[in-house]
Amino acid sequence: MQTLIKWPGGKSGEITYIRDLIPKFERYIEPFFGGGAVFFSIRPENAIINDACKELMDFYRFAKNEFNRKEFKKELYEYVNNWEKIPMYLDLFENKFFDLYFKYRKGIISEEQLKNIVDEEIKHEIKEFNGLFNKKFCLDDKNLMRQIMANLFSKIKRIKNIEQERGEIPLEDLHKNIETAFRSGFYMHFRDVMNHNGTKYKVSHVKKIANYYF
Predict the structure, then answer these.
(1) Rounded distance between C-alpha atoms, residue 126 and residue 138, angstroms
(2) pTM of this prediction?
(3) How far is CA 147 from CA 57, 162, 181, in A?
């Protein structure tokens, strides 16, 4: 069986070497489970697993159906669906954005003007961003917007500097950079949700673990 989650120091690539070194045993015990590559590969019948990361172990409990797996799956697909819709969101205003960026690159409008116009454009289309800025999903639409904008303009400044040094980049590359900025903002927002759960954000257990997995 493949691992369910990527983990730092995971052994998926070393399994073929590790298997030959495992002695015969009656009970398998793994206190630092992580992604569980060895466990899932050898599939011991009698085993005890654990990890210091409670969220990780709760993730496995949801997967095992010790907790409400149906609700967990529903929460996970909220992330999947909104992540996959990001290119669709960009289609709503990307051509306008390109025109604005070209004006910014030529010095026709300032960075501050560009920020203000793009901010208004996104807010104007926000109802079309089906689900992404829904507070039930994102919990804090203002922080999500801040993170997206921060990553977007960080990318824009880098792109402008690169073009000044090396010449214009293809439109396709510009598109990829804009999409990456949106995805980065999305990720950074939900990292905030994970890091400030219980203080700034109060979420259900199932949402917390789905967010942790994302």
Answers:
(1) 13
(2) 0.87
(3) 29, 23, 9
Helices (H), the chain: 15-19, 37-42, 54-64, 69-84, 86-91, 94-106, 111-124, 135-138, 141-166, 171-195, 205-213
The pLDDT tens digits for 78-134 are 999 999 988 888 887 888 888 888 999 989 999 889 888 888 877 777 676 667 788
Residue 169 amino acid letter:
I
Closest-CA residue to 183 (of 193, 195, 171, 175): 175
How many CB atoms are located within 10 Å of the residue 49 CB?
A: 16
d(CA 7, CA 3): 9
Please name which of 128, 85, 81, 119 lies closest in space to residue 100, comparing C-alpha atoms: 119
The DSSP string of 142-191 is HHHHHHHHHHHHHHHHHHHHHHHHH-PPPHHHHHHHHHHHHHHHHHHHHH
CA distances for 159 relative to 32, 73, 102, 145, angstroms:
42, 38, 11, 21
As a whole number of angstroms, the distance between CA 37 and CA 68 comes to 24
- Give residue-wise pLDDT tens across range 16-56: 999 999 999 999 999 999 999 999 999 999 999 999 999 99
DSSP state of 201: B
